[in-house]
Amino acid sequence: MSTAQQIVKRSELIDRRTIDRRTAEEVGRVAQLWLDPQSHRAIGFTCKSGLLGSKKRWFAWAQVDTVGENVFVNINPELPELQQPEQAVSPIGLEVLTDAGNKAGSVVDYLFEVRTGSVLSYLFKSSGWRGVLDGIYLLPVAAISTIGSKRAIVSEAAVSEPQQYAEGLHKKVGQVAEFLQEDLDKTLKNVEGVKRGAQSLAEKLQDKALEVRDVAQEKVADLKGKRPLAAPPESTPENETIVPRPPESGLG
Q: CA-to-CA distance for 64 and 57, rounded, in angstroms?
């Protein structure tokens, strides 16, 4: 197996195809990983094959050669198949209790190092204890004092303010609601901006129309003031007889 550190989540290996490294033949798919509860190490996994996964075979973790998109295992055909040790447990679903007697949640997964099989941290789902929101949180191995087949007892201080691993439903819903509210606020601001812009444009057009009207009125007034007035023609009645005036005499 490679000496480079490779950290994976237990759930990522479930249903992954298992290949015999020597023959390149498929021997099944990963059904379950098993841990030693005292050392917190992966000691093997169950591989299922056949119709509806009815046939199961146990592989020791020491047989694992490579973990990638497929799991390569070393199988010695001259040796009998290994049997699952009695101390092997699967912590998935374990109830998480604090050393003060409170229920903090349940184990849903764990992170482990492939080369050594060592569990780095368990992942537990909060039950809402002490106001901790729904979600997946880290549970350090060092925080576990006792682990059994159904429950794990942990330090209350370690789970009172746990580090979140994945966002919970409440937080996602809150983020969606916050996003929608922000989007609504932006939309309303945009609409208000458009309304203000339209109102400003209308006011400008109205002011321009008034300005054009005033200029036109001034032009008309100027034209009226500069127009020459024609003298009205003298009227001569049709039957009026014009009598010439006699010349003035120069005698005094």
A: 14
Enclosing domain of residue 56:
7-73
- Tell me the DSSP string of 130-161: GGPPSSEEEEEGGGEEEE-SSEEEE-HHHHHS
pLDDT tens track for 55-100: 999 999 999 999 999 999 999 988 888 888 888 999 999 999 999 9
Global pTM reads 0.63
Distance CA 126, CA 132 (A): 7
Number of domains in the chain: 3
Residues 162 and 197 grouped into a single domain: no
Residue 159 covered by a domain: yes
Please compute the mean of the pLDDT values over residues 20-26 and round it to a whole number: 96
Domain end: 24, 40, 73, which one?
73
* Amino acid at position 201, single letter: L
